[in-house]
């Protein structure tokens, strides 16, 4: 399937055919052996998976969608990759993304854009457009993504797939190339809510290698919750679902709002109680995110110095000082969007501007968390459209960064608050998928599966 369609879709940056077939054959042998060997196979054994190329893999290249890491091979596996290998899932390869996960369309990849399988003249969302498109185009039944401001959920929305951003700390970030460390989370991309839940159960859990990893005892059940059970309940009788007043209306396409209303109707028919919640600080969420995210990224990306990883470019003439090698490497290795964010971030963190920009953004972050706390007093889960628009045409927002950033308006509050969210397909508008997003309090990831499962 990859050979047949990926010439057009460009979801994969690397295909690991031999390795995947080898893993699959080994699983077949274990299954044929029967007895305890067959019985001990994980339910996902032999099910192939694609991995966003921001997550490091031993024996397969990791580029982060950047020339900076072209040709670089990680000497170790990310914790999530260790887990999918232990479950004996064949890794099909690495999927395309906006460079260092900065973007909402996958057009900022240094290796060409990914195309939306529903309409190849349109974007697949971003930054995880490769993972979402691979799943939507039936190139892979499951994929891993990362979500810092919506990069799992927004691509899910515009490709008609399911994507979950777990509670911050719920899945180990060890081996996820850092973008904005206080916001980043790895999560599942799938075709159904139950599939996403099953993969989420596999990759979740505490990890000593990630200092922000959540101890399992801190979940409400005192252990990792059963996400699959929640996803398959299909009954939301009595569940209080809060519609976020600020995440609808102006700026949202009419077709998106129409599908959203129909989804609410279906939930109501299923027994849910629909209420409206007010989150006034959300009006400032985008502004706060686009200060905090670049600030953290500017610090994280300082490691690409032309010495430690990947690309090194020497200045054409003049002395080979550290500054000049670093400058030549970064000038050639980073794309425009990455440079824009490093400049924004270093500016926001600089002495004299710190309080006005970074400090204010952190205060807004607290206000957003308080809005969520208040909203979750009135509702068990919250709901909104995942993205204000369906997939837009390639190149249509590339010259207008702010228009691109506006596509994240509904997804970023969850990252700023560290809470879980899921995007689930909610029908089509003009032949293109519309996504519905559910959000729940931190550590209550089971609730987003419960609500999303009912809509499927
Ligand atoms: N579109 C957002 C951004 O550009 C989200 C990125 C992400 O979640 N990795 O920052």
UniProtKB/TrEMBL annotation:
InterPro entries: Amidase (IPR000120), Amidase_CS (IPR020556), Amidase_dom (IPR023631), AS_sf (IPR036928), GatA (IPR004412). Allows the formation of correctly charged Gln-tRNA(Gln) through the transamidation of misacylated Glu-tRNA(Gln) in organisms which lack glutaminyl-tRNA synthetase. The reaction takes place in the presence of glutamine and ATP through an activated gamma-phospho-Glu-tRNA(Gln). It comes from Nesterenkonia natronophila. It catalyses: L-glutamyl-tRNA(Gln) + L-glutamine + ATP + H2O = L-glutaminyl-tRNA(Gln) + L-glutamate + ADP + phosphate + H(+). This is Glutamyl-tRNA(Gln) amidotransferase subunit A. GO terms for biological process: translation. GO terms for molecular function: ATP binding; glutaminyl-tRNA synthase (glutamine-hydrolyzing) activity; transferase activity. Residues 1-448 form the Amidase domain. Keywords: ATP-binding, Ligase, Nucleotide-binding, Protein biosynthesis, Transferase. It is an enzyme of class 6 (ligase). Belongs to the amidase family. GatA subfamily. Gene3D superfamilies: Amidase signature (AS) domain. One of its GO terms (cellular component) is glutamyl-tRNA(Gln) amidotransferase complex. The gene is gatA. Its EC number is 6.3.5.7. Heterotrimer of A, B and C subunits. The keyword S-adenosyl-L-methionine does not apply. The active site is at residues 52, 127, 151.
């Amino acid at each position: 399937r990859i050979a047949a369609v990926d010439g057009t879709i460009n979801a994969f940056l690397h295909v690991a055919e031999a390795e995947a077939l080898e893993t699959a054959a080994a699983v077949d042998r274990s299954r044929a052996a029967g007895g305890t060997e067959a019985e001990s196979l994980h339910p996902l054994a032999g099910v192939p998976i694609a991995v966003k190329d921001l997550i490091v893999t031993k024996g397969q290249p990791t580029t982060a969608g950047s020339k900076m890491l072209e040709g670089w091979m990680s000497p170790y596996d990310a914790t999530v990759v260790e887990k999918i290998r232990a479950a004996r899932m064949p890794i099909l390869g690495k999927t395309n993304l906006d460079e260092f996960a900065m973007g909402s369309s996958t057009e900022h990849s240094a290796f060409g854009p990914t195309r939306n399988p529903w309409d190849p003249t349109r974007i697949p969302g971003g930054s995880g457009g490769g993972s979402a498109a691979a799943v939507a185009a039936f190139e892979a039944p499951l994929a891993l993504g990362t979500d810092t401001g919506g990069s799992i959920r927004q691509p899910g929305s515009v490709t008609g797939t399911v994507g979950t951003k777990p509670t911050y700390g719920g899945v180990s970030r060890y081996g996820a190339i850092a973008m904005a460390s206080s916001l980043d989370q790895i999560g599942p991309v799938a075709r159904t809510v139950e599939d996403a839940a099953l993969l989420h159960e596999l990759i979740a859990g505490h990890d000593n290698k990630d200092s922000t990893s959540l101890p399992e005892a801190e979940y409400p059940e005192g252990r990792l919750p059963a996400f699959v059970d929640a996803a398959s309940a299909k009954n939301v009788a009595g569940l209080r679902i809060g519609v976020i007043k600020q995440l609808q209306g102006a700026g949202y396409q009419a077709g998106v709002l129409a599908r959203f209303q129909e989804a609410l109707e279906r939930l109501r028919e299923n027994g849910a109680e629909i209420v409206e919640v007010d989150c006034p600080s959300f009006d400032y969420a985008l502004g706060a995110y686009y200060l905090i995210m670049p600030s953290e990224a500017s610090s994280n990306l300082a490691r690409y110095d032309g010495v430690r990883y990947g690309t090194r470019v020497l200045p054409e003439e003049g002395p080979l000082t550290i500054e000049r090698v670093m400058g030549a490497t970064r000038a050639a290795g980073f794309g425009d969007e990455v440079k824009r964010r490093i400049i924004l971030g270093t500016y926001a963190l600089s002495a004299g501007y710190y309080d006005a920009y970074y400090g204010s953004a952190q205060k807004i972050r607290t206000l957003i968390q308080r809005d969520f706390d208040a909203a979750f007093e009135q509702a068990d889960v919250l709901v909104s459209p995942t993205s204000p628009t369906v997939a837009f045409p390639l190149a249509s927002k590339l010259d207008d960064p702010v228009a691109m950033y506006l596509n994240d308006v509904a997804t970023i509050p969850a990252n700023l608050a560290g809470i879980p969210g899921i995007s689930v397909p909610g029908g089509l508008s003009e032949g293109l998928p519309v996504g519905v997003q559910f959000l729940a309090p931190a550590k209550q990831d089971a609730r987003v599966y419960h609500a999303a499962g009912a809509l499927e």
